[in-house]
Amino acid sequence: MPVNIFKTIYRLCAVIPIMQRHPVRSSVLDSVGYDPGAKILELEFREGGVWTYFNFPKPTYKRFISAESLGVFFVKRIKGKYPELRVK
């Protein structure tokens, strides 16, 4: 699916909260949320900004939250590898 379709769907749904984020211990991230049914990962960064990543597989999410360094995992395995949208 084209990224624009994900962006349109997300913007339509953004008027109501679709996921709850949880605080994490990270020098890069403040909180992380995941919706396994929709395969959506949402990350809140310490430097500001909330990003949503689409088509994010549950096994990858499990490896991500179990990683020794969330920041390193993000840079190596998430950033630029999934359709994304800055939502805040």
Folded structure, characterized:
- With 88 residues, the protein is of the alpha+beta class.
- 33% of the residues lie in helices and 25% in strands.
- A five-stranded antiparallel sheet has the order 1-2-3-4-5, covered by helices on one side.
- A hairpin with a 4-residue loop joins β2 (29-35) and β3.
- The radius of gyration is 12 Å and the shape is globular.
Q: What does the overall shape look like? A: globular
> Cα distance, first to last residue?
23 Å
Class of secondary structure makeup: alpha+beta
Unreliable segments of 5+ consecutive residues: none
Strand count: 5
Order of helices and strands: HEEEEHHE
Question: What is the domain tally?
Answer: 1
Helicity level = 25-40%
Compute the gyration radius: what is it? Answer: 12 Å
Helix and strand topology:
Layout: H1 3-13, E1 22-23, E2 29-35, E3 40-45, E4 50-53, H2 58-66, H3 70-78, E5 84-86
What characteristics describe this protein?
single chain; 88 residues; alpha+beta; five-stranded antiparallel sheet; 25% strand
